Amino acid sequence: MESFVREPPVSVGDIRTVKIEAIGSGGDGIAKISGFVIFVPNAKLNDEVTIRVTKVLRKYAFAELVE
Predict the structure, then answer these.
(1) Domain spanning 15-65: which CATH class is it, in words?
(2) Its pTM surpasses 0.70
(3) Which of 5, 38, 41, 48 sits a CA distance of 20 to 30 A from 21?
């Protein structure tokens, strides 16, 4: 039986505005786009930030802050 794997809602290079909803154990900010988790270093809880996606994996992605 094959399970359906959803495509991530972001791609490398995407620029989005997100709200940091939580802080991960490593100190990175955590945002979500359509339920998809994105780790954002140097972001603070409840910040609304503009990010650029740098790496997309199956279950989560990494992004950097855009100045």
Answers:
(1) mainly beta
(2) yes
(3) 5
